[in-house]
Amino acid sequence: MGFFLSLSYLGLQDLMSVEKVCKSLQHAVKNDPILWQSIHVERPLSERLTDDALLKLVERSQGHLRNLCLLDCLKITDDGLKQVLDISPNLTKLFLPGCTRLSADGIVKNVKAHRECSIPGVKQLRIGGLFGITREHLEKLNYLLDGGLQQKSPSVKPRFYNGRHYSLPYDDGSTIDIEACPKCGSARLVYDCPNESCQNQADHTVRQCRACTFCIARCSECGRCIDGEYEETFCLDMRCADCVRASQLPSASQLQRIERFWLW
Questions:
Q1: Are 48 and 139 within one domain?
Q2: Same-domain check for residues 1 and 70
């Protein structure tokens, strides 16, 4: 009995592996909706996940799905997301960072349709890494996530850039990860700077280095704004001089010198 209770602590990939062990475990995994209240898909499963496969996974929740996180699921479409939302009336957290086949119009349409048929509807949304999101899309999504009440959002914790992640932390308290950039006004992910001199400013909403990565270059390791010496890595990421020295990884210029040495 204790073993079956422990299944709720397993991730998606582990659950799917346990399911193949024997018939009793297969039955337990497939038919217990509690195990499928939260579905988190990441690499390498995200590379193979299709609309049909996702729908079959969500159907296991028997309508009890509350949290759905699809990280870099490049095969998921607007129609596939619609089918999932149609059978998930209790879904409140929808995380779709890096799902580039989804459209901004489709996200707005699906979130609106889900809210009209469900209570309370989607309350927390992550769509960092999607293309074509405008200020108009952002305004509509904020309205839908707030339930049309236009409530004043609470103060948000500082957000720091990390080159390995598309989106913001799921538990930072914000309803949506994108916002209007203070510098260019575009609807994008906006980051603060971890520099102590920047953090000491009282009002983080007017900090000069608070902006999207199109307006201010940031170190892919520490997230600070790069306004001085930096190095470009072989993967074309930018790292501040302090992080390059700390990691002791070769920069692009160093790799070029090594390549010229061996060719010589």
A1: yes
A2: no
Whether 21 contacts 30, CB under 8 Å: no
89 burial (CB, 10 Å; 0-12 / 13-18 / 19+) is: middle
- Cis omega (within 30 of 0) on the bond before 120? yes
Range of the domain at 2: 1-31
Calculate the alpha carbon distances from 208 to 153, 182, 193 in Å. 22, 9, 9
Whether residues 69 and 93 share a domain: the answer is yes
Which secondary structure element, helix H or strand E, spans residue 128, and what is its range? none
Nearest to 129 by CA among 212, 66, 193: 212
Distance CA 117, CA 3 (A): 37
pLDDT tens readout for residues 94-148: 999 999 999 999 999 999 999 998 888 999 999 988 999 999 999 999 999 985 5
Q: Which of 119, 152, 185 is the last residue of a domain?
A: 152
pTM for this prediction: 0.79
Cα–Cα distance for residue pair 125/141, rounded to 1 Å? 9
Based on the domain organization, do 10 and 57 belong to the same domain?
A: no
Number of domains making up the chain: 2
Residue range 244-260, pLDDT digits in tens? 777 665 556 655 665 65
Residue 210 inside a domain? The answer is: no
**Distance between CA atoms of 164 and 115, rounded to whole angstroms?**
32
